């Protein structure tokens, strides 16, 4: 069939993500005057809560972590720490080399584009400032919706925002948390994009995937249902 929309995962799909974050993590700890290893251990424990939007500002999540560590911090320290998180996020949202050219071809073919990401609140805060944002007709973030993949609800939200049915959507992702199978369950056509990252259990679906696969974003343009719509 001819697809009307392509919905992309974010990290490991259209951006590489937080692969070069060590320097920013050190700055984050320095801003709060706390040991790096202890801070990151507490920060990682908050991953699910942050992804599900329990904290609707970066300040809230930082204040919570400092409370858990029994550390008193000033407003100025929090301000510096927030700025570090924002700089890290902007860096993480650098598009992959073939992303923009692929998006341009998809849009030229009249396809709608959606984003569906499990992420903390930093991402939707920074997203409008990125060069990625202008290409997307709808961007759905777990921390804003307070539900995350693989829950069917968040896939349906993306379809509603794009005004398409699930069956009209191609879903492209790196296979984290069984997101591809979940997309298929709601009626989308899932495609795995290869990644150099190892992910253990979190990316087990990618290791076991027997469905359609591409190794780069540009290969999307050669898929049935897409190639006859793009230049």
Please provide a written account of the structure.
The structure is a single chain. With 231 residues, this protein is an alpha/beta fold. It has two domains: 5-16 and 96-222, Rossmann fold; 22-92. The protein has eleven helices and six strands. It has a six-stranded parallel β-sheet with strand order 3-2-1-4-5-6, sandwiched between helices. α1 (22-32) packs antiparallel against α5 and α4 crosses α5 (75-92). It is elongated.
Question: Could you list some keywords that capture this structure?
Answer:
231 residues; alpha/beta; Rossmann fold; 2 domains; six-stranded parallel β-sheet; 11 helices; 11% strand; elongated
List the helices and strands and how they pair.
Layout: E1 5-8, H1 22-32, H2 36-45, H3 47-51, H4 58-68, H5 75-92, H6 99-108, E2 112-117, H7 122-126, E3 138-141, H8 142-145, H9 152-162, E4 169-173, H10 179-185, E5 189-193, H11 204-208, E6 213-214
Parallel strand pairs: 1-2, 1-4, 2-3, 4-5, 5-6
């Amino acid at each position: 069939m001819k697809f009307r929309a392509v919905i992309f995962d974010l990290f490991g799909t259209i951006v590489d993500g937080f692969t070069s974050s060590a320097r920013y993590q050190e700055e984050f700890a320095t801003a709060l005057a706390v040991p790096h290893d202890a801070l990151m251990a507490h920060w990682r424990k908050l991953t699910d809560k942050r992804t599900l939007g329990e904290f609707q500002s970066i300040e809230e999540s930082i204040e919570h972590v400092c409370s858990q560590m029994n550390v008193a911090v000033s407003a100025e320290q929090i301000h510096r720490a927030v700025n570090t998180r924002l700089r890290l996020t902007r860096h993480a949202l650098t598009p992959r080399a073939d992303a923009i050219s692929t998006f341009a071809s998809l849009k030229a073919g009249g396809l709608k584009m959606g984003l569906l990401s499990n992420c903390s609140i930093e991402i939707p805060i920074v997203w409008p400032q990125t060069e990625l944002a202008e290409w997307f007709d709808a961007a759905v973030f777990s921390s804003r919706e307070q539900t995350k993949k693989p829950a069917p609800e968040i896939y349906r939200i993306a379809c509603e925002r794009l005004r398409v049915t699930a069956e009209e959507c191609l879903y492209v992702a790196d296979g984290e948390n069984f997101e591809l199978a979940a997309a298929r369950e709601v009626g989308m056509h899932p495609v795995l994009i290869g990644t150099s990252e190892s992910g253990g259990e979190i990316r087990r679906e990618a290791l076991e995937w027997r469905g359609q696969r591409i190794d780069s974003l540009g290969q999307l343009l050669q898929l049935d249902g897409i190639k006859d719509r793009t230049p």
